[in-house]
Amino acid sequence: MNMRTLHVEEPKLTFGLGQTALHPKDGLFLYGPAAPHAAREIRIGAIGSAAGLERLSRWMAAVRGFIPAFNDKAHHSPFPGVQAAFGIAWPDKPHQSIVLPDGELEKRIRYDDKHRRVYDTVDLLVNELLEFKRRSDFRPDLWIVVLPEDVSKYGRPKSIVPKGQRIPTPQPADAVQKRKSADAFLFPEDEAARLPYQYELNVHNQLKARLLEAEVVTQVIRETTLTPHDFLDKFGGLIRGVQDPATTAWNLITTLYYKVAGPPWRLTNVRPDVCYIGLVYKEDPSRAASQRVCCGAQMFLATGEGVVFRGHLGPWDSVRAGEHHLDEETAERIIAEVVESYALEHKRAPAEVFIHGRTRFTPDEWRGFQRGAKGVGILSAIQIQKSKDIKFFRDKTEEVEATLNLPRGTALILDDRTAYLWTAGFVPRLQTYPGWEVPNPYRISVQRGDADIETVLSDVLGLTKLNFNACIYGDGQPVTLRFADAIGEILTAGHNLEKLKPLPFKHYI
């Protein structure tokens, strides 16, 4: 097959009343979401300090109304208000609030023991949320967790609290010397003391991980995102760069709606019973070599629904640095779980299954996938890698004055199994290329199976429009890979997460 170029047509999205549009913001403004929320209202719970909850209420009141666009450029859109865009009643404050003791989060996040610093901060949030769930009949659709900027600043793996601000950790545990031990301790208090050292040093990921078993859905928001002008430096500038208010509203409300009511838009003209699986790998150096890597799977449908399947621990080593590969048995088990979950929901096996990964697929993995995909009509394994091997440009013309970048959706097909696809590039609707650097393509290879390369390219471009963590024209990555690293971090951030049942994607973002 000769090398050739083509332009993959921009996938359309379906919104309310079956109407279509290319841009989520256009479709939501004109037609509303594809799946209107049955209750017509979102019940919001919130947890944070009194100051943080006051800032949240201010923001919730603001997004009830019109927020002008940042400027008159085509890629900036005004926010029309929650009810106007999403068709739901939106409160001007949370229905239920948990007020944390003033300064308690800021105190804990300054403990001099970095593991206790993160664990105890998350502990305060988790305990309050679980206690509320235990004693109250009110069930919010979602909890908004409002974090002070210091928690985000010092609640990360490489964060360092300035020496003069550190607070002695209460009741220092002797587990510091024992935390690498895999042996069980005789006394429960020893196990409890060791527990903080078994979690990742990341407030966001640890919070998500520790709430998975209770199935509490959360949205973590920093105070500086809600009211950025409350936080100025000595020169009068913002202490943290944030998006403009209209863009922030579009992105956050889209995410909140997705977590409560489901996908606000869907891909148009999708093939029935198609299932996409993204494989997730994350190393955990604290574990023994035989269980050092966690592999999980994300299942996505063209309708936008997603499910994350628990991690499978193992060595998963490869002769190539940065690559991990499953043995045949585990590959079979992972795909079987996905197919069985799909069949349980839809009363039939998927007609097509595409397995997406960043690395090549070994013969052992492929045999396992084939055995696990019982009843599946077409099975394919697709390698998707960011590539810097090739750059494309186009001449500047009078018709296109704004950019020299090629259009999004440009593809260079090398043969019937391999192609380059530019998921970023000039977008006519936006009249610009929404990026700073010359876009790099993805190298897409049909590693196993007999999928048509043009169909694969069209599917991958469509999957870039299913990132419901934002409201954008198209993401640079397909959703099967977009959150792989973040999900892997959450799967390894917690304790005994390999025992979790499959949970909707909304629990992880």
Tell me what you see in this structure.
This is Piwi domain-containing protein. GO terms for molecular function: nucleic acid binding. InterPro entries: RNaseH-like_sf (IPR012337), RNaseH_sf (IPR036397). With 509 residues, this protein is of the alpha/beta class. The chain has 2 domains: 36-261, no CATH class; 266-507, 2-Layer Sandwich (Nucleotidyltransferase, domain 5). The chain has helices at residues 24-31, 50-62, 82-86, 104-108, 114-135, 149-154, 188-194, 203-211, 223-226, 245-261, 328-346, 363-372, 453-463, 479-482, 484-493, and strands spanning 4-7, 13-14, 20-21, 44-48, 96-99, 142-147, 218-222, 266-267, 274-283, 293-301, 306-314, 352-357, 378-386, 410-413, 418-421, 442-448, 503-504. Helix 8 (203-211) packs across helix 15. It is globular and about 65 Å long. The two termini are 41 Å apart.
Mean pLDDT: 88
The CATH architecture classification of the largest domain is: 2-Layer Sandwich
* Cα-to-Cα separation, first versus last residue: 41 Å
Radius of gyration: 24 Å
* CATH level 4 superfamily of the largest domain: Ribonuclease H-like superfamily/Ribonuclease H
Low-confidence stretches: none
CATH fold naming of the largest domain? Nucleotidyltransferase, domain 5
Tell me the total number of β-strands: 17
Basic shape: globular
Strand order of the largest sheet: 1-14-15-16-13-12-9-10-11-17
The structural class is alpha/beta
Q: Roughly what percent helix?
A: 25-40%
The number of domains is: 2
Strand content: 15-25%
> How is the main sheet built?
10 strands, mixed
Individual helix count: 15
